[in-house]
Amino acid sequence: MKYAKIIVDISHEKLDRPFVYGIPEELEEEITAGSRVEVPFGKGNRRISGYVIDITEQADFEPERIKYIYGIRKGSLKIESQLIALAWWMKEQYGSTMNQALKTVIPIKKSVKEVRKQYIYLHTDRETAKHYLLEYQTKKNTAARARLLEELLEQEILEQSVVQEKLGVSRSVIRALQDKQIIEIRSDVIFRNPVHMKEQPEYDIVLNQEQRTAVEEILNHRDRTHLIFGITGSGKTEVYMELIQNAIENGKETILLIPEIALTYQTMKRFYQRFGNQISIINSKLSAGERYDQFQRAKQGEIKVMIGPRSALFTPFRNLGFIIIDEEHEGAYKSEQIPRYHARETAVRRGELSGATVVLGSATPSVQSFYRAERGEYMLHRLTRRANHLFLPRTEVVDMRKELAEGNREVFSRRLLELISDRLEKKEQVMLFINRRGYSGFVSCRSCGTPVKCPHCDVSLTHHKYGYGRRETLVCHYCGYSMDMPRVCPECASKYLGRFGIGTEQVETRMKELFPQAAVLRMDFDTTREKDGHEKILEAFATRNADILVGTQMIVKGHDFPYVTLVGVLAADLSLFAADFLAGERTFQLLTQAAGRAGRGKRPGEAVFQTYNPEDACIRAALHQDYQSFYQNEISYRSLMAYPPVYYMAAILISDKNEMLAEQASGDFAERIEKSRIDGLLVIGPSKAGLSKLNDIYRYVIYLKHQENDVLIQVKNRLQVYLNRSEKYRNLSVQFDFNPMNGY
Ligand code: ADP
Ligand code: ZN
Ligand code: ZN
Q: How far separated are the first and last CA of the chain, in Å rounded?
């Protein structure tokens, strides 16, 4: 006899525990994981519905207590069962409770007040508006007003939140135009789209040969997973749109994942222009209620395309045709909350459950995906030409060791300074990118060498100098702890405390000194803390309110800046020192993307990488924009070291307030795993985590590697069974991370 594990109807709160029911013989063939069934429940054997999440051969209770499934629910809602089956898979795959997995997959309806959206209209006639536009375009400091009027003249109606967030127009600017009766604001619930096109413009792009081939092959191989490897500007987005169009014509829906940071107003507009009200765009700022709303609309068939970040993957479409993941290499596709799922793998699973085709796209594919493509698991499509005939940027490397040897103590090489002044003269723009991934400007003692650390976390504090007259502080980027910059070393009382490395603030200050005529903007952790800080800075730069933009990796993505013709990377090698196996891959991606920022308009661009390691393979590959050689080098390293994607890897993170307990438990777990003598399993550790204390919690980590993921899942399951039975470890936190993307 067979049994089914069943989650009872999701409106009940008891989601966490599946109930076991017997499967009547006549239903054995029909019932599978995901089936929606009716079962007797509770004392009165009330007839309620539930979802089968798993089929087993045994049940561990007495036969006389077994209840049997009544039958399969008629007109079953396939979509819920699909998502529940997906949640079950995620729980198994990544290690979480069913409840955590379900909450990730199915947003819970919270009763929220309906938010009436505000819409902005032109209040004057178009002629008057055009007059104002001209005035604002020429006057100083009215660029935001001009931007708003320009969009309004084109679109007639704009949603206020979009104007603020995506166009970077502040509330006070809106109010000013409202006071002058140029615009008016109404609340309305009729227009659902944040961008309302007055009329659909003609769509006149004809795909080139490479694009057409990609589309045709994808359509001809619906059961495969596809990887589009296309350089920036090669027209990947046009390929996605063609696929979406095809899906719509065939009554199918599409989910398109785009990293939030890349989902700019320009991109949004492009999709609305082509697909109008058939699409919905969500972002992570939506409230639970709004997200639920959008998901409802998808379920009811009101929309055909959902565009959004990672969580859009769970849109309850019933007839899914495609799941497309743009910039598939992005770290943001991996969830850092439990279950720590990766959107790419989860998309492939959802594709299997729903019959949808998964399409991945990137200019710098993850080593993981390219490996799959090389082995024929994914179908590879290449787009090798820039569709709009733009040039690829020229790139060069400057050896900073030589600069120092020749007496230059600046953080800028002479070559870079020369190019900057050239661009300023030509009234072109410059981006200076400080690669600080996995690194922060810490303070340490020059006498005893001890860095100043956070008292709650095992990390160095980061130095902040809040400009004019405000005092210097040290901040912990993990827990937010901050203190005044100490006068003497907390360890040895020496006066010689010094800062290391270069910070964005320093670069900004130095730029202003060297080029007093230039307007300099800075974008980093500090200047983007306020809501929409991000968009505002980028918009100001896009509208040429500044000549130089200084920033961390956050400036290399998203916006197109047609007047940027020079990109300088100040510490190209810093990300190489991050303590995990993805350091090289990240460096290559960052540098390639940074270079891609130069020359997006009609003028050719140039990128300069300043480095102390000009011979490093990743930097050389980025210099020559040679993905293939980067990949070959990287994959031999991974294979040698048994790292993903050649091996599967999982981290077990053990943490507790009691350091002894955490240490002892991690030793105990590692020993149990070793003792099970699984063929080919590599156990690394236990050891203190790299970040060994976080918020006063001690952390230990064990890494597991094997050539088969299923083996790692088995180890996890056994450990979980052991943990569930153990009294000693009842309150201990044990978390799993499969294919971890960050070191612990
Ligand atoms: P990617 O997504 O690969 O960066 P896009 O799809 O955004 O590239 O294309 C870059 C630019 O080239 C866009 O302005 C797009 O409209 C244009 N473009 C793409 N394909 C074509 C084509 N076949 N003909 C003309 N222009 C194209
Ligand atoms: Zn000291
Ligand atoms: Zn801290």
A: 45
Quick check: CB of 212 below 6 Å from ligand 1?
Answer: no
Q: Whose CA is nearest to atom 27 of ligand 1?
A: 387
Distance CA 613, CA 606 (A): 20
Neighbours of ion ligand 2 (CB under 5 A): 445, 447-448, 489, 491-492, 494
Which atom of ligand 1 lies at the shortest distance from residue 239's CA? 6
Which-ligand-closest: CA of 450?
2
Q: Is 274 in the pocket of ligand 1 (CB under 6 A)?
A: no
- Between CA 53 and CA 84 the distance in angstroms is 7
Beta bridge partners of 187: 118
Residue nearest to atom 4 of ligand 1 (CA): 233
Q: What is residue 224's predicted lDDT score, i.e. its pLDDT?
A: 97
Neighbours of 310 (CB within 10 A): 22
Residue of the CA atom closest to atom 10 of ligand 1: 233
Distance between CA atoms of residues 213 and 543, nearest Å:
37
264 lines ligand 1 (CB under 6 A): no
- Locate the ligand 1 atom nearest the alpha carbon of residue 388 and give its number: 12
Task: Return the pLDDT at 439.
Answer: 47
SS3 of residue 566 by DSSP = strand
Which ligand number lies closest to the CA of residue 238?
Answer: 1
Question: Comparing C-alpha atoms, which of 416, 605, 538 is closest to residue 147?
Answer: 538
Residue to probe by mutation, ligand 1, list 238, 240, 324, most atoms within 8 Å of CB: 238
Starting at the edge strand found earlier in the chain, the sheet holding 183-188 runs: 183-188, 117-122, 157-159, 195-196
Can you tell me which residue has the tokens 């082509």? 274
State the pLDDT at residue 553.
74
Model confidence, pTM: 0.80
Ligand nearest the Cα atom of residue 477? 3
Is residue 235 lining ligand 1, measured as CB closer than 6 Å?
yes
What does the alpha-carbon distance between residue 613 and residue 401 come to, in Å, rounded to a whole number?
9
Max intra-chain CA distance, the chain: 88
pLDDT score at 13: 45
The C-alpha atoms of residue 97 and residue 735 are separated, in whole angstroms, by: 11
Ligand 2 centroid to residue 485 C-alpha, Å: 14
Look up tokens 């439990």; give the residue.
Answer: 338
Evaluate: CB of 233 within 6 angstroms of ligand 1. yes
SS (H, E, C) 334-399: ECCCCCCCEHHHHHHHHHHHHCCEEEEEECCCCHHHHHHHHCCCEEEEEECCCCCCCCCCEEEEEE
Q: List the one residue out of 294, 380, 396 whose CA is nearest residue 619.
A: 396
CA of 560 to the centre of ligand 1 (A): 13
Atom 14, ligand 1: residue with shortest CA distance: 388
pLDDT at 467: 42
Residues of the chain under the 70 pLDDT cut: 9-17, 74-78, 107-116, 188-203, 388-390, 435-441, 465-470, 500-502, 525-526, 529-532, 557-559, 574-579, 601
Residue-wise pLDDT for 190-248, tens only, equals: 434 555 555 556 667 899 999 999 999 999 999 999 999 998 888 999 999 999 999 99
